[in-house]
Design goal:
This is Metal-dependent phosphohydrolase. The protein is mostly helical. It has 10 helices and 2 strands, in the order αββααααααααα.
Length: about 180
């Protein structure tokens, strides 16, 4: 937790301190996974660190030295997944259980935060219209949820499904770039 506090300090995700996002991802895993491994929780707490720290020294080596090989492996996979969202047709990978659990929890936290912020804005449609990249990614997130469904705890899949369904309904009347 100390490293998460240090490396997340001064950064924000979804208009909140980055540490709050990291803790929510770890807590979400704990809500659905009985006795999650310490490595999975550490990776959840540190998953956005590659975006926050300088490349020198190599952050993955620093993480491996501090936490062993699993934590940086999970974080690297999540980081690659995040970067792929900026590309056309990002891949959906569900074969690595720890990465899948962390990725699903991260999506739950991020999408629920977007929903809260959309409602707090007073105009959900305008809030979503101002985020065309999100609208374009909704089908990808739905495909991810469907691929992950048989591989993650049922309640976790249902929670992601609910967040996506609410966003899809709210976005249904907004034309996307491809239309």
């Amino acid at each position: 937790m100390r490293d998460a506090q240090r490396w997340c300090a001064g950064h924000t995700i979804d208009d909140h301190p980055a540490l709050a996002h990291a803790v929510r991802v770890a807590v979400t895993i704990g809500e659905y996974v009985p006795n999650p491994s310490p490595e999975l929780i550490a990776a959840a707490l540190l998953h956005d660190v590659p975006d926050f720290v300088p490349r020198t020294p190599d952050i993955y080596q620093v993480l491996a030295d501090a936490y062993g090989p699993q934590v940086p492996r999970i974080i690297a996979a999540l980081h690659a997944e995040h970067q792929a969202l900026d590309m056309p047709n990002p891949p959906i990978r569900v074969s690595d259980p720890p990465v899948l659990l962390a990725s699903t929890a991260d999506k739950i936290v991020a999408l629920r935060s977007l929903l809260r912020r959309a409602h707090a804005s007073g105009n959900v449609t305008n809030f979503l219209r101002a985020r065309p990249a999100l609208l374009t990614l909704l089908p990808h997130f739905r495909a991810f949820q469907q691929a992950a469904h048989p591989r993650v705890p049922a309640g976790m899949s249902a929670r992601l499904d609910t967040a996506l369904t609410l966003l899809e309904r709210a976005a249904a009347s907004i034309p996307t770039v491809s239309e």
